[in-house]
Design goal:
By secondary structure, this protein is of the alpha+beta class. Helix content is 28%, strand content 11%. Keywords: Cell membrane, Cell wall biogenesis/degradation, Lyase, Membrane, Transmembrane, Transmembrane helix.
């Protein structure tokens, strides 16, 4: 964790505020996906823990998915 103590313009642990330039840039596939979302009503998602996600259309469905995959750790 030595890098957390190194005082550089990009270290937000030692400097207040934002770094002088962007620190991350999404790739073309991510930008395309944001501009052309998949069809559906899904507003929520939760990681299943196996590299996939559970998408939900309603908050009730999302709460059930969170209970299943996060609170009870079911595959």
């Amino acid at each position: 964790y030595k890098d957390l103590q190194t005082d550089t313009a990009y270290n937000t642990y030692t400097r207040y505020g934002l770094p002088p330039t962007p620190i991350c840039m999404p790739g073309a596939p991510a930008l395309y996906a944001a501009l052309h979302p998949a069809p559906g009503k899904a507003l929520y998602f939760v990681a299943r823990g196996n590299g996939t996600h559970q998408f939900s259309d309603t908050l009730q469905e999302q709460n059930a998915a969170v209970a299943k995959y996060i609170l009870h750790r079911q595959p």
